[in-house]
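Q: Here's a chain of 103 amino acids. Please give me its 3D structure as tokens.
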Amino acid sequence: VAPATPVCEVPSSAMTGTVVQMSCKETEGSPPSEYQWYKNGVALLEKTGTGSARAANITYTMNKKSGTLLFNTVTKNDTGEYFCEAFNGIGLSQKCSVKRMQV
């Protein structure tokens, strides 16, 4: 079954230095969907090893299985427009509407 349009939860504003968790979920896809987050239209990288992530200055953890995007400490650089995409290899991937977070 192709994925349904996912529901994204993105805070509209956050204080610098706080923990922010965004979530993305859809329940109709079978097999279960994986999720990809985008910021300003660019796919966010999945954090694999600490070395490469630190070099790229990645301040978040993205879980493709659960759809969560977790920022341990948000900075002004994290301000932007976020959306996520659900895909399971069947039918078209589905995106939620873009939501802006202001830090």
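Q: Can you summarize the key feature?
A: The first helix runs from residue 50 to 55.
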